[in-house]
Amino acid sequence: MNADITTAQETDQAREKRAAFKLRHARGLTTLMDERSDLRGVHALADLVDDAVRWTA
After folding, report:
1. Model's pTM, two decimal places?
2. For the chain, how long is the longest CA-to-CA vector?
């Protein structure tokens, strides 16, 4: 039982770390795209993420 609790706690911590990483990455990308409008159209995935973040804001 103790191992199950530890595993569940570790899983929750890993999920929280992953969510925090995604948030930092999206924030950084959005900041970069705001500062460097010349980068628009260079990388399609970056444009997609930037647009997605703006639509959810």
Report:
1. 0.60
2. 55
